[in-house]
Each structure stands twice: as structure tokens, then as C-alpha cells.
Amino acid sequence: MDVHKPAMRRQGVLPVFASFAALAFVLVSVTSPMAQQEAAAAVVLAEIEAMPTQVLAVDGEYTTEVVRDGYGVTAKPVPPPPPPAAAASPARSGGGGGGGAPAAGTPDPGSAKAIAYAMVQARGWGEGEYNCLVSLWQKESGWNTFANNPSSGAYGIPQSLPGSKMATAGADWATNPATQITWGLGYISGRYGTPCGAWGASQSKGWY
């Protein structure tokens, strides 16, 4: 289809229509001034309507749809609750079972407790294990090298039953606290694992 044909027809009619409008304007102008103004306006309107129509063709597909960006509303993050506080234990056990014991404090240099403290550290046990050992042997013998139980025959700091068992640690078992402590720690390690394990057994049974 030729989109310019309507414009060509209008261009051919324009001179004829303009001549007719001019003649009408002359005829009306001799009658009244108002009719003259109306005739002039009619001529201008006729010229405007007779102007060719322009047609613009655009290839492609288009849409008038308006798309808005979507925005999500994110709730304010809630901070995680603080971790529960760890319950404080009576004493650090350092790796054994049976519960903790009161803090023993720093032993006097050269004392049986000082010897025991050094041996506990040498075995890799912590401060809590030393605390358990002090409480255990305080209950058994009061840390007395010559403590003797007349009813059972238990002897020494660890209350070995009988006392002669400690000879495996040294011939001076009856008088040397270091020999008694060496044997006592070996007994505890083999039977209860740690001093705190032995202390827990003593608390429940009354002996170890």
C-alpha cells in the first residue's frame, strides 16, 4: 500500500478549494465586516485541513508496559543469645574423674606435700589432681610418714595395706616419704587413673 496517495489527493484539491474560498470571501466581504472576518477564518481553517498528513512507520515491537523494580523488606537480624556460662567447678581436675577437691595451696618447700606436688606435675596431672591428692591423703593419714592403722595394719602416707607392699618402690618404704608417695601414685594410677578418681571413690565408699 502507498501511504503517500492520500496526501497527493489532498494536494490536488488544495488549489481548487483555495480558489473557491477566496471567491466566497470576496462575496461575503461586500455584505458585512463580521461576515468578512468569519470568511477569513474559514479560509485559514480550510488551508490547515487541506495540508497533507504525515505518516511515520517504525519497524519493531514495542510495549508501553512499565515495570517497577521490586524491593524486599528484610527484617532486622536478631542477635544470637549469649552462650550459657560454664558452671564453676570446685577445683580443676586436670583429667581425672571423681569430682574436685578444695584448693590445697602452695606446699612448704621440702615437705612431703612438696615432693608429691613435683611428682604430680611430672606425671602431667594438673593442679586439680594435686588438690584431690592432698585431700585424699589428709583423710587417710594426715600426711604422716609413720601413720599406722592398728585395726587394719595400713601404713604410711598412702596407707598401704599392708605397708610392706611399698617395698616395690624402695627398701626405705617405712621411713622415706618420697618412696611412699612414689608407690602411692603408682597405685592410684593403676586402680583409679588419677588422684581425683581415687578421691571420688573415697568419698563414696569411705576408702580407696
3D architecture notes:
The protein contains six helices and no strands. With 208 residues, it is an all-alpha fold. Among the domains are: 5-50; 112-205, no CATH class. α3 crosses α4 (127-140). Mean pLDDT is 75; it is low at 1-10 and 84-98.
Helices, strands, pairings?
Elements lengths: L4 H25 L3 H18 L61 H11 L4 H14 L36 H15 L3 H11 L3
Short summary:
The protein is an all-alpha fold and 208 residues long. It has six helices and no strands. Among the domains are: 5-50; 112-205, no CATH class.
List key phrases describing it.
208 residues, 45% helix, mainly alpha, disordered N terminus
Write the H/E string, N to C.
HHHHHH
Number of helices: 6
By secondary-structure content and strand pairing, the structural class works out as mainly alpha
Query: Roughly how much helix do the residues carry, as a percent range?
Result: 40-55%
Using the alpha-carbon principal axes, give the shape: rod-shaped
Q: How far from one another are the termini?
A: 116 Å
Q: How many strands, which pairing sense, and closed or not: the largest β-sheet?
A: none
Rg, alpha carbons: 58 Å
**Poorly predicted parts:** 1-10, 84-98
Query: In percent terms, what proportion of residues is strand?
Result: under 5%
Number of strands: 0
The mean pLDDT is 75
